[in-house]
Write a structure and sequence with these properties.
It is a single chain. The chain is of the alpha/beta class and 277 residues long. It is built from nine helices and twelve strands. Helices cover 39% and strands 21% of the residues. A five-stranded mixed sheet has the order 2-1-3-12-4, sandwiched between helices. A five-stranded mixed sheet has the order 9-6-10-5-11. Strands 7-8 form a two-stranded antiparallel sheet. Helix 2 packs across helix 8. The chain is globular, with a radius of gyration of 25 Å. The chain starts with a helix and ends in a 14-residue tail after the last helix.
Length: 277
């Protein structure tokens, strides 16, 4: 009996050692996987910033970085929430807050980045002064960016909005008066550059303007972008204090990234966040 007892104890010890080894291996693999990250962005400036400035910096710190490109404003957040990517860079705080509340997602803005402002573009007119009654104006159909367009339309004197409205939630129903009898055509944000062939004016978000070949200097009017409309890096709420979050902040605040934005001609005209000035 003692012999069998000794054998049983030996087997238990061996199995325990094997389980501990497996656990250690899994932990090591998990730690290794944490260095393999995916960051989502829409095509254009924010993907370029990632590839040219942030990815090289993080790779020097031992990360393996894949930049995943999206062509709309919905999938980057869905992918982040589901864990398919680890961060994204494409949206402003107002859009993030609205999206997260509507879909019950826990996401936070980590840091604001140099932002290409939304602009009014036209292939038919050289100035906003050329506007006439009946002219068509394309805007984004997502609530946050359409509100931006409406605020700009009021600022340039084309419409008058109702008093007391929340600027970030303005919609067409909040137009009290069409000072210029324009026709507003809400479109998917990615389609607004293409709409320039058929409409008189189009509000085009900076990332889609640049990715479609438009230059900020070609806009007939550029937004004076407030902080809440500047693009930010987004993480899941649970990762707010993670090492990845700290390293992303370090990468964006690095001298290398600042130099990239100062010296590369394609980033001229961007609005800089306060921490970068």
């Amino acid at each position: 009996m003692k012999f069998y007892k000794i054998i049983s104890i030996t087997i238990i010890l061996i199995l325990s050692a094997m389980l501990s080894a497996c656990s250690a291996t899994e932990k090591t693999n998990a730690q290794s996987d944490n260095k393999k990250i995916k960051i989502g962005a829409t095509a254009g400036p924010y993907g370029d910033q990632l590839n040219e400035g942030i990815k090289p910096y993080l790779e020097k710190k031992g990360y393996e970085v894949e930049v995943v490109e999206f062509n709309d404003y919905i999938q980057p957040n869905v992918a982040l929430n589901e864990g398919d990517i680890d961060a994204n860079v494409f949206q402003n705080f107002n859009y993030l807050k609205n999206f997260a509340e509507e879909r019950d997602m826990d996401m936070i803005e980590l840091i604001k980045v140099p932002t290409a402002p939304i602009g009014i573009y036209s292939k038919k007119h050289k100035s906003i002064d050329d506007v006439e009654d009946g002219h068509t104006v394309a805007t984004s159909n997502d609530p946050v960016n359409q509100a931006r367009a409406l605020i700009m339309l009021e600022q340039i004197g084309w419409v008058k909005l109702k008093e007391g409205i929340e600027p970030t939630k303005a919609s067409e129903k909040d137009i009290a008066e069409y000072i210029k009898k324009i026709v507003i055509e809400p479109l998917d944000p990615a389609q607004t550059p293409r709409a320039l062939e058929s409409v008189d004016y189009a509000f085009v978000n900076g990332n889609f303007a640049i990715s479609s070949g438009l230059k900020l200097s070609e806009a007939v009017e550029l937004e004076k972008t407030p902080p809440s409309y500047m693009i930010g890096v987004t993480l899941r709420g649970e990762d707010e204090d993670s090492q990845l979050g700290k390293d992303l902040i370090e990468a964006y605040q690095s001298e290398e990234f600042k130099k990239l934005n100062e010296e590369n001609e394609k980033y001229q005209g961007y609005v800089w966040p306060d921490w970068m000035k």
